[in-house]
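User: I've been trying to design a sequence by hand for this structure and keep getting stuck. Would you show me what you'd pick, starting by listing the structure so we're on the same page?

Assistant: Good idea, let's start from the same input. This is the structure you sent:
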Protein backbone atom coordinates (compact mmCIF):
# COMPACT_ATOMS: atom_id res chain seq x y z
CA UNK A 1 0.00 0.00 0.00
CA UNK A 2 1.27 3.44 -0.94
CA UNK A 3 0.51 5.41 2.20
CA UNK A 4 -1.38 8.67 2.01
CA UNK A 5 1.20 10.50 4.12
CA UNK A 6 4.37 9.59 5.97
CA UNK A 7 6.99 11.72 7.70
CA UNK A 8 10.51 11.63 6.29
CA UNK A 9 12.73 10.72 9.27
CA UNK A 10 16.44 9.93 9.05
CA UNK A 11 19.39 9.36 11.38
CA UNK A 12 19.84 13.13 11.59
CA UNK A 13 16.53 13.57 13.45
CA UNK A 14 17.47 10.67 15.73
CA UNK A 15 20.89 12.21 16.42
CA UNK A 16 19.44 15.57 17.48
CA UNK A 17 16.72 14.02 19.64
CA UNK A 18 19.30 11.91 21.46
CA UNK A 19 21.38 15.04 21.97
CA UNK A 20 18.46 16.72 23.74
CA UNK A 21 17.85 13.68 25.93
CA UNK A 22 21.52 13.54 26.89
CA UNK A 23 21.95 17.24 27.64
CA UNK A 24 18.98 17.07 29.99
CA UNK A 25 17.06 20.20 28.96
CA UNK A 26 13.83 18.76 27.58
CA UNK A 27 11.45 21.68 28.09
CA UNK A 28 10.92 24.49 25.61
CA UNK A 29 13.40 27.15 24.54
CA UNK A 30 16.38 24.87 24.97
CA UNK A 31 19.30 24.38 22.59
CA UNK A 32 17.34 23.61 19.42
CA UNK A 33 14.52 26.14 19.53
CA UNK A 34 16.78 29.13 18.71
CA UNK A 35 18.54 27.03 16.06
CA UNK A 36 15.18 26.58 14.34
CA UNK A 37 14.61 30.35 14.46
CA UNK A 38 18.01 30.89 12.87
CA UNK A 39 17.07 28.56 10.01
CA UNK A 40 13.86 30.48 9.33
CA UNK A 41 15.66 33.80 9.45
CA UNK A 42 18.39 32.69 7.06
CA UNK A 43 16.00 31.04 4.61
CA UNK A 44 12.99 33.35 4.73
CA UNK A 45 14.17 36.53 6.45
CA UNK A 46 11.84 35.88 9.40
CA UNK A 47 13.07 37.64 12.55
CA UNK A 48 10.17 37.29 14.98
CA UNK A 49 9.00 33.68 15.21
CA UNK A 50 7.88 31.57 18.15
CA UNK A 51 7.45 27.81 18.09
CA UNK A 52 4.13 26.60 19.48
CA UNK A 53 2.60 23.29 20.48
CA UNK A 54 0.57 23.20 17.26
CA UNK A 55 -0.63 25.23 14.31
CA UNK A 56 -3.88 25.49 16.23
CA UNK A 57 -2.03 27.10 19.14
CA UNK A 58 -0.44 29.63 16.77
CA UNK A 59 -3.90 30.63 15.53
CA UNK A 60 -5.17 30.87 19.10
CA UNK A 61 -2.28 33.14 20.02
CA UNK A 62 -3.05 35.39 17.05
CA UNK A 63 -6.67 35.58 18.21
CA UNK A 64 -5.55 36.72 21.66
CA UNK A 65 -3.06 39.21 20.24
CA UNK A 66 -5.74 41.07 18.27
CA UNK A 67 -7.94 41.22 21.40
CA UNK A 68 -10.89 39.34 19.98
CA UNK A 69 -14.04 39.79 22.03
CA UNK A 70 -17.41 38.11 22.21
CA UNK A 71 -19.58 39.31 19.34
CA UNK A 72 -16.71 40.14 16.98
CA UNK A 73 -17.09 38.74 13.47
CA UNK A 74 -14.38 36.91 11.53
CA UNK A 75 -14.50 36.37 7.77
CA UNK A 76 -13.08 32.94 7.02
CA UNK A 77 -13.31 30.30 4.29
CA UNK A 78 -15.49 27.31 5.09
CA UNK A 79 -13.13 25.04 3.15
CA UNK A 80 -10.55 24.58 5.89
CA UNK A 81 -9.75 22.50 8.96
CA UNK A 82 -11.66 23.16 12.18
CA UNK A 83 -8.58 24.69 13.86
CA UNK A 84 -8.89 27.88 11.82
CA UNK A 85 -12.35 28.58 13.22
CA UNK A 86 -11.92 27.09 16.70
CA UNK A 87 -9.12 29.59 17.31
CA UNK A 88 -11.55 32.50 17.39
CA UNK A 89 -14.69 30.67 18.53
CA UNK A 90 -12.84 30.11 21.80
CA UNK A 91 -12.61 33.91 22.15
CA UNK A 92 -16.37 34.29 21.57
CA UNK A 93 -16.09 35.57 18.00
CA UNK A 94 -18.48 34.54 15.24
CA UNK A 95 -17.46 33.00 11.90
CA UNK A 96 -18.77 34.60 8.73
CA UNK A 97 -18.09 31.98 6.08
CA UNK A 98 -16.84 33.11 2.69
CA UNK A 99 -17.00 30.97 -0.44
CA UNK A 100 -13.89 29.87 -2.33
CA UNK A 101 -12.43 30.38 -5.80
CA UNK A 102 -12.90 27.61 -8.34
CA UNK A 103 -9.26 27.60 -9.40
CA UNK A 104 -7.13 27.63 -6.23
CA UNK A 105 -9.90 26.73 -3.72
CA UNK A 106 -8.69 29.65 -1.60
CA UNK A 107 -11.00 32.29 -0.15
CA UNK A 108 -12.70 34.27 -2.92
CA UNK A 109 -11.29 37.75 -2.39
CA UNK A 110 -14.01 39.29 -4.57
CA UNK A 111 -16.66 38.31 -1.99
CA UNK A 112 -14.91 39.54 1.16
CA UNK A 113 -15.90 43.20 1.09
CA UNK A 114 -19.59 42.33 0.84
CA UNK A 115 -19.35 40.38 4.12
CA UNK A 116 -17.81 43.18 6.19
CA UNK A 117 -19.96 44.78 8.90
CA UNK A 118 -19.23 47.11 11.80
CA UNK A 119 -18.55 43.98 13.87
CA UNK A 120 -15.86 42.58 11.57
CA UNK A 121 -12.54 42.31 13.42
CA UNK A 122 -10.42 40.22 11.06
CA UNK A 123 -10.09 38.07 7.96
CA UNK A 124 -8.57 34.63 8.50
CA UNK A 125 -7.09 33.40 5.23
CA UNK A 126 -5.96 29.84 4.47
CA UNK A 127 -3.17 29.10 1.99
CA UNK A 128 -4.79 25.87 0.84
CA UNK A 129 -2.45 23.20 -0.54
CA UNK A 130 0.50 25.54 -0.13
CA UNK A 131 -0.84 28.04 -2.68
CA UNK A 132 -1.09 31.62 -1.41
CA UNK A 133 -4.31 33.62 -1.41
CA UNK A 134 -4.61 36.90 -3.36
CA UNK A 135 -2.98 38.99 -0.66
CA UNK A 136 -2.61 42.25 -2.55
CA UNK A 137 -6.39 42.48 -2.77
CA UNK A 138 -7.10 41.09 0.70
CA UNK A 139 -4.64 43.38 2.48
CA UNK A 140 -6.00 46.39 0.59
CA UNK A 141 -9.52 45.57 1.80
CA UNK A 142 -8.27 45.09 5.37
CA UNK A 143 -6.47 48.44 5.32
CA UNK A 144 -9.57 50.17 3.97
CA UNK A 145 -11.74 48.94 6.85
CA UNK A 146 -9.08 48.87 9.60
CA UNK A 147 -9.30 45.12 10.24
CA UNK A 148 -6.64 42.46 10.76
CA UNK A 149 -5.60 39.67 8.42
CA UNK A 150 -4.44 36.40 10.02
CA UNK A 151 -2.61 34.13 7.59
CA UNK A 152 -3.20 30.43 8.22
CA UNK A 153 -0.12 29.11 6.42
CA UNK A 154 -0.27 25.70 8.06
CA UNK A 155 0.25 24.05 4.67
CA UNK A 156 2.49 26.69 3.10
CA UNK A 157 5.95 26.57 4.68
CA UNK A 158 8.27 27.20 1.74
CA UNK A 159 5.61 28.67 -0.55
CA UNK A 160 5.73 32.21 -1.97
CA UNK A 161 3.39 34.94 -3.20
CA UNK A 162 5.01 37.36 -5.65
CA UNK A 163 8.43 36.43 -4.26
CA UNK A 164 7.48 36.86 -0.59
CA UNK A 165 7.33 33.83 1.73
CA UNK A 166 3.95 32.65 2.93
CA UNK A 167 3.58 33.37 6.61
CA UNK A 168 5.05 36.87 6.13
CA UNK A 169 2.23 38.36 4.06
CA UNK A 170 0.06 39.70 6.91
CA UNK A 171 0.69 40.84 10.51
CA UNK A 172 0.46 37.22 11.74
CA UNK A 173 1.55 34.04 9.96
CA UNK A 174 0.63 30.67 11.48
CA UNK A 175 2.54 27.51 10.54
CA UNK A 176 1.92 23.85 11.31
CA UNK A 177 4.64 21.25 11.78
CA UNK A 178 2.23 18.36 12.36
CA UNK A 179 3.45 15.01 11.05
CA UNK A 180 1.22 15.39 7.98
CA UNK A 181 2.95 18.59 6.86
CA UNK A 182 6.09 19.06 4.74
CA UNK A 183 8.40 19.78 7.68
CA UNK A 184 7.48 18.10 10.91
CA UNK A 185 8.04 17.96 14.64
CA UNK A 186 5.27 15.44 15.38
CA UNK A 187 2.86 17.90 16.94
CA UNK A 188 3.84 21.55 16.69
CA UNK A 189 3.53 24.87 14.96
CA UNK A 190 4.85 28.39 14.87
CA UNK A 191 3.59 31.96 14.86
CA UNK A 192 5.38 34.66 12.86
CA UNK A 193 5.01 38.19 14.21
CA UNK A 194 5.53 40.38 11.16
CA UNK A 195 5.05 43.58 13.16
CA UNK A 196 7.56 44.07 15.98
CA UNK A 197 4.95 45.62 18.27
CA UNK A 198 3.32 42.22 18.89
CA UNK A 199 6.42 40.21 19.76
CA UNK A 200 6.87 40.98 23.46
CA UNK A 201 3.23 40.28 24.27
CA UNK A 202 3.32 37.11 22.13
CA UNK A 203 6.21 35.78 24.23
CA UNK A 204 4.20 36.40 27.38
CA UNK A 205 1.02 34.76 26.04
CA UNK A 206 3.05 31.73 24.94
CA UNK A 207 4.53 31.34 28.45
CA UNK A 208 1.26 31.04 30.37
CA UNK A 209 0.95 34.81 30.60
CA UNK A 210 4.33 35.26 32.29
CA UNK A 211 7.56 37.02 31.29
CA UNK A 212 9.67 33.86 31.71
CA UNK A 213 11.38 34.51 28.36
CA UNK A 214 12.80 37.73 29.76
CA UNK A 215 14.21 35.80 32.71
CA UNK A 216 15.91 33.31 30.37
CA UNK A 217 17.56 36.21 28.54
CA UNK A 218 18.70 37.76 31.84
CA UNK A 219 16.50 40.84 31.47
CA UNK A 220 14.78 40.36 34.85
CA UNK A 221 15.70 38.54 38.08
CA UNK A 222 12.30 36.86 38.44
CA UNK A 223 9.28 36.29 36.26
CA UNK A 224 5.65 37.00 37.12
CA UNK A 225 2.13 36.89 35.69
CA UNK A 226 1.50 39.74 33.22
CA UNK A 227 -1.31 38.71 30.85
CA UNK A 228 -3.64 35.93 29.83
CA UNK A 229 -1.92 33.04 28.11
CA UNK A 230 -1.50 29.31 28.00
CA UNK A 231 1.11 26.59 27.72
CA UNK A 232 1.88 27.13 24.03
CA UNK A 233 5.59 26.24 24.31
CA UNK A 234 6.75 22.92 22.75
CA UNK A 235 9.45 20.65 24.10
CA UNK A 236 12.97 21.09 22.80
CA UNK A 237 12.84 17.41 21.80
CA UNK A 238 10.33 18.37 19.12
CA UNK A 239 12.36 21.43 18.15
CA UNK A 240 15.31 19.10 17.56
CA UNK A 241 13.25 17.08 15.07
CA UNK A 242 12.22 20.26 13.27
CA UNK A 243 15.81 21.54 13.17
CA UNK A 244 16.88 18.38 11.37
CA UNK A 245 13.95 18.76 8.98
CA UNK A 246 14.97 22.32 8.17
CA UNK A 247 18.54 21.23 7.52
CA UNK A 248 17.03 18.78 5.01
CA UNK A 249 14.69 21.45 3.62
CA UNK A 250 15.83 21.33 -0.02
CA UNK A 251 15.91 17.53 -0.11
CA UNK A 252 12.36 17.20 1.24
CA UNK A 253 11.06 19.97 -1.03
CA UNK A 254 12.63 18.39 -4.12
CA UNK A 255 11.12 14.97 -3.42
CA UNK A 256 7.64 16.37 -2.81
CA UNK A 257 7.71 18.54 -5.92
CA UNK A 258 8.83 15.54 -7.95
CA UNK A 259 5.69 13.64 -6.92
CA UNK A 260 3.48 16.71 -7.49
CA UNK A 261 4.92 17.36 -10.95
CA UNK A 262 4.61 13.69 -11.91
CA UNK A 263 0.92 13.77 -11.04
CA UNK A 264 0.40 17.03 -12.91
CA UNK A 265 2.09 15.67 -16.04
CA UNK A 266 0.38 12.28 -16.23
CA UNK A 267 -3.11 13.47 -15.26
CA UNK A 268 -3.22 16.05 -18.04
CA UNK A 269 -4.70 13.48 -20.43
CA UNK A 270 -7.55 12.68 -18.02
CA UNK A 271 -8.32 16.37 -17.65
CA UNK A 272 -8.29 16.86 -21.42
CA UNK A 273 -10.77 13.98 -21.68
CA UNK A 274 -13.06 15.75 -19.20
CA UNK A 275 -12.73 13.10 -16.48
CA UNK A 276 -11.26 15.32 -13.77
CA UNK A 277 -9.73 18.70 -13.00
CA UNK A 278 -6.12 19.09 -11.92
CA UNK A 279 -4.72 21.57 -9.42
CA UNK A 280 -4.20 25.17 -10.47
CA UNK A 281 -1.27 27.32 -9.32
CA UNK A 282 -1.47 30.99 -10.39
CA UNK A 283 1.69 32.41 -11.99
CA UNK A 284 2.29 34.79 -9.07
CA UNK A 285 2.46 31.84 -6.65
CA UNK A 286 5.26 29.37 -5.98
CA UNK A 287 3.94 26.31 -4.13
CA UNK A 288 5.70 23.77 -1.91
CA UNK A 289 4.16 20.53 -3.14
CA UNK A 290 2.18 20.09 0.06
CA UNK A 291 -0.72 18.18 -1.43
CA UNK A 292 -2.22 17.13 -4.73
CA UNK A 293 -5.96 16.91 -5.24
CA UNK A 294 -8.20 16.26 -8.20
CA UNK A 295 -11.78 17.36 -8.69
CA UNK A 296 -14.08 14.58 -9.86
CA UNK A 297 -17.59 14.90 -11.34
CA UNK A 298 -19.49 14.04 -8.14
CA UNK A 299 -19.33 12.23 -4.79
CA UNK A 300 -20.41 8.87 -6.23
CA UNK A 301 -17.52 8.89 -8.67
CA UNK A 302 -15.17 9.93 -5.88
CA UNK A 303 -16.29 7.07 -3.64
CA UNK A 304 -15.81 4.53 -6.42
CA UNK A 305 -12.34 5.91 -7.20
CA UNK A 306 -11.34 5.69 -3.52
CA UNK A 307 -12.43 2.05 -3.35
CA UNK A 308 -10.74 1.10 -6.61
CA UNK A 309 -7.48 2.85 -5.71
CA UNK A 310 -7.44 1.12 -2.33
CA UNK A 311 -7.86 -2.22 -4.07
CA UNK A 312 -4.90 -1.33 -6.30
CA UNK A 313 -2.73 -0.41 -3.32
CA UNK A 314 -2.88 3.38 -3.03
CA UNK A 315 -4.55 5.30 -0.21
CA UNK A 316 -6.60 8.27 -1.46
CA UNK A 317 -8.83 10.38 0.77
CA UNK A 318 -11.42 13.13 0.69
CA UNK A 319 -10.31 16.57 1.85
CA UNK A 320 -12.49 18.71 4.18
CA UNK A 321 -16.15 18.42 4.96
CA UNK A 322 -17.05 22.14 4.60
CA UNK A 323 -17.32 23.72 8.03
CA UNK A 324 -20.56 25.54 7.30
CA UNK A 325 -22.37 22.25 6.59
CA UNK A 326 -20.52 20.08 9.16
CA UNK A 327 -22.43 19.18 12.35
CA UNK A 328 -20.94 22.09 14.31
CA UNK A 329 -21.60 24.49 11.45
CA UNK A 330 -25.23 23.45 11.31
CA UNK A 331 -25.45 23.80 15.08
CA UNK A 332 -24.27 27.40 14.69
CA UNK A 333 -27.09 28.01 12.21
CA UNK A 334 -25.34 27.79 8.83
CA UNK A 335 -26.91 26.15 5.79
CA UNK A 336 -25.26 24.18 2.96
CA UNK A 337 -26.48 26.80 0.49
CA UNK A 338 -24.43 29.58 2.12
CA UNK A 339 -21.21 28.65 0.26
CA UNK A 340 -22.25 26.92 -2.99
CA UNK A 341 -18.79 26.50 -4.56
CA UNK A 342 -17.39 25.14 -1.31
CA UNK A 343 -20.33 22.75 -1.02
CA UNK A 344 -19.97 21.55 -4.59
CA UNK A 345 -16.22 21.00 -4.46
CA UNK A 346 -16.25 19.58 -0.94
CA UNK A 347 -18.27 16.63 -2.28
CA UNK A 348 -15.97 15.74 -5.17
CA UNK A 349 -12.37 16.62 -4.23
CA UNK A 350 -9.98 13.71 -3.86
CA UNK A 351 -6.48 13.93 -2.38
CA UNK A 352 -3.78 11.63 -3.70
CA UNK A 353 -0.86 10.22 -1.68
CA UNK A 354 2.02 12.68 -1.44
CA UNK A 355 5.08 12.54 0.79
CA UNK A 356 8.86 12.66 0.52
CA UNK A 357 9.21 8.89 0.87
CA UNK A 358 7.45 8.31 -2.45
CA UNK A 359 9.52 7.53 -5.53
CA UNK A 360 8.88 8.64 -9.09
CA UNK A 361 7.65 5.09 -9.77
CA UNK A 362 5.16 5.35 -6.90
CA UNK A 363 3.79 8.61 -8.28
CA UNK A 364 3.59 7.19 -11.80
CA UNK A 365 1.70 4.15 -10.51
CA UNK A 366 -0.83 6.32 -8.66
CA UNK A 367 -1.35 8.71 -11.57
CA UNK A 368 -1.59 5.95 -14.19
CA UNK A 369 -4.07 4.10 -11.98
CA UNK A 370 -6.20 7.22 -11.56
CA UNK A 371 -6.29 7.65 -15.34
CA UNK A 372 -7.39 4.04 -15.82
CA UNK A 373 -10.03 4.17 -13.08
CA UNK A 374 -11.66 7.43 -14.17
Amino acid sequence: MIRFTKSSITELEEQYVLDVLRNGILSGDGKYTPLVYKQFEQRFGIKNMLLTTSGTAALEMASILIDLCEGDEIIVPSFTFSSTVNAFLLRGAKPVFCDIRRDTLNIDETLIEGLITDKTKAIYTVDYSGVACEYDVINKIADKYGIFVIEDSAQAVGSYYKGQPCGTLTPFGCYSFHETKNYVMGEGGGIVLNEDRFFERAEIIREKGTNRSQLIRGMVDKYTWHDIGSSFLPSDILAAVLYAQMERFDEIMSKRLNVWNTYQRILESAETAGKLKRQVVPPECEHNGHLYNIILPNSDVRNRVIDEMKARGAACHICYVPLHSAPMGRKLGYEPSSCPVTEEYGSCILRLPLHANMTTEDAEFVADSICEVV
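That's my pick for every position. To get oriented when you compare it with your attempt: The longest strand covers residues 120-126. The radius of gyration is 21 Å.
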